[in-house]
Amino acid sequence: MSLVELREHLCATFPDLCPLFSIEFGDGVLQVGPERLHEAMEGLKTLGFDMLGMVTAVDFGEEFELVYRLRAREMGVAIIVRARLPRHTPRAASVTDLWPAADWHEREVYDLFGIVFEGHPDLRRILLPDDWVGHPLRKDYEDPSIIRRPDYR
Amino acid sequence: MSERLVVNIGPSHPSTHGVCRIVVELDGEIVTHAEPIIGHLHRGIEKMAENRTYLQIVPLTDRLDYVGSMYANWAYCRAVERLAGIRVPERAEYIRVIVCELQRIASHMMGIGSAAADTGAFTVFMYAFEQRELVVDLFEALCGSRLTYNYVRPGGVSADLPDGWVDRCRTFIKGHPDAMREIDRMLFGNVIFRARTKGIGVLDAADAVAWGASGPVARGSGVDYDLRRDDPYSMYPRFDFTVPLGERGDSYDRARVRLWECVESCRIVEQALDQLAEYEPGVIMTEGLPRLLAPGRGDAYDHIESARGCLGVYLVSDGGVCPYRMKVRSPAFSNLALLPLLATGHTLSDLIVVLGSLDPVFGEVDR
Questions:
Q1: Which of A20, A63, A143, B255 is the most buried (most CB within 10 A)?
Q2: Given a cut of 70, is residue A94 above it in pLDDT?
Q3: Would an 8 Å CB–CB cutoff place B30 in contact with chain A?
Q4: Residue A7 has pLDDT above 80, yes or no
Q5: Where does the pLDDT of residue A46 fall: very low under 50, low under 70, confident under 90, or very high at 90 and above?
Q6: What is the number of domains present in chain B?
Q7: Nearest 5°: CA angle at B254, between B230 and B363?
Q8: Sign of CA dihedral B184, B186, B187, B188
Q9: Is residue B163 assigned to a domain?
């Protein structure tokens, strides 16, 4: 299935998700608000997206962007779902009820970015020790051992 | 109901295949819960990447899956090439396919060998490592390194095949399938190994998909999914190969799928070497690439089928010389999350077998 066909399929099944879909650099992207994230993910699952490949986040200063990558094996197509969260309240609904694969991935995002997934059964740090202070992949994370690369250009 | 006992295994224990700690709850000898505690090898590679140029990150990716460094090199380079819109010469793509299929053999030999050693079949471990050694020798001749290759670079590969390498490689892939048949008889026909692995850690196909398992772990359960065929990249559409599948999804099937994948890899390498002969030597790098890559704003995700499954790299660029964010989607991380599901209800000694059949590499799990 091509991305254009995916768009048609998505728009026919979920008309309200249709305006959120775009095709960027050969990837199908669905940009949703955090309040509609779970609803959209549930819709995508019924559409046939059976594999959750990864969950990650990017720190854009004022906002965090959650990035999910889903794959539909039957249709042979992948989609990226993005949701922007405000930095002061980084909370989003967990999708562990839809894909158990999200369990460790969401724990990792919580560990490294401090984003809280509501409804996650066991939201603890996963890579870092339990008593670690701060969330290292945030851009404002400070550690004396980090030596900034000088700008050569 | 006997008394509940909590046992700690690892983090440094020969059967954990790296630095993994497992907290096991036991009822007698039966595992009632097993929780892998990971992160002992977490070096913050994703954070380090934000402070390095695109070319400087390639050696970091070597340290992810240190049993299959070529894969992480390639997945990363594919993401960079996609981000920067670089077209790679076909000869370089063929070389990448060849080294990565050889890498699959080397990695699976480690996987099968250590899974065999876990069940006491130490002879097979040595036989498998002999095959791995031959591949590693080929890599040493190719790029000078035996473990962390730093060979696949954005835009191509770092060196062309040296004189006589193709013949050496052909000799290896000619003999390798026979060695695999020997291991098949010696290990998979062995009554002890069968008793230790058949019906142990059964993963059904629906669970494999829901938990995001990939590679031999998913295919051992009969999930017919291989990125080389189902999301074809590089030169894979030009090769004829089959995807071995398991039936029952137990530890035996997972290990055996790896064995037949090695034979398929030999077929791919053979075809690739034949097709490579038509390309002029020396054209292995995109011309005119700047020393300091600075792709425009945007993001790119690309993935390959590594020996452990779907290995993806997600890059975000803000237009600078370092990536703004790099995320490695490692297959071993997702596969290892299955351990509590698979080991519960089996004995403690079976837990070790299940862990071995998942073939995790902790450089990649912890990053």
A1: B255
A2: yes
A3: no
A4: no
A5: confident
A6: 1
A7: 80
A8: positive
A9: yes
Which 66-85 residues of chain A touch chain B by CB within 8 A? Answer: 67, 69, 73, 76, 78, 80
A15 at the B interface (CB within 8 A)?
Answer: no
More confident residue, A5 or B329: B329
pTM of the model: 0.90
Q: Is B177 on the interface with A (CB under 8 A)?
A: no
A48 touches chain B (CB under 8 A): no
Per residue in B248-296, pLDDT (tens digit) is: 889 999 999 999 999 999 999 999 999 988 888 888 888 888 888 888 8
The reply to whether residue B337 touches residue A50, judged by beta carbons under 8 angstroms, is no
Read off the pLDDT of residues B336-363 as tens digits, 9 standing for 90 and up: 999 999 988 889 888 888 988 888 888 8
Contact B212 A51 (CB under 8 A): yes
| Among candidate residues A83, A97, A80, the one with its CA nearest the CA of residue A6 | A80
Tell me how close the Cα of A17 comes to any Cα of chain B, in angstroms. 22
Q: State residue A152's pLDDT score.
A: 63
Residue B302 placed within a domain: yes
Say if CB A95 and CB A46 are below 8 A apart: no
Is residue B363 in some structural domain?
Answer: no
By the 8 A CB rule, do A65 and A83 touch? yes
Which ranges of B85-159 does DSSP label H, i.e. alpha helix?
90-118, 122-143
Determine the pLDDT at residue B1.
55
In this structure, are residues B27 and B1 in contact, taking their beta carbons and an 8 Å threshold?
A: yes
The CATH number given to whatever domain includes residue B258 is 1.10.645.10
Q: Is A144 on the interface with B (CB under 8 A)?
A: no
Range of the structural domain that residue B103 is part of: 53-332
**Domains in chain A, start-ordered, CATH in brackets?**
3-118 (3.30.460.80)
Tell me chain B's radius of gyration from C-alpha atoms: 20
- A124 CB near a chain B CB, below 8 Å? no
- Would residue B134 count as lying in a domain? yes
| Mean pLDDT, each 10-residue run in order, chain B (367 residues) | 80 76 89 89 89 89 89 92 89 92 92 88 89 92 89 89 90 91 89 88 89 90 88 88 89 91 91 88 83 85 90 90 90 90 89 88 88
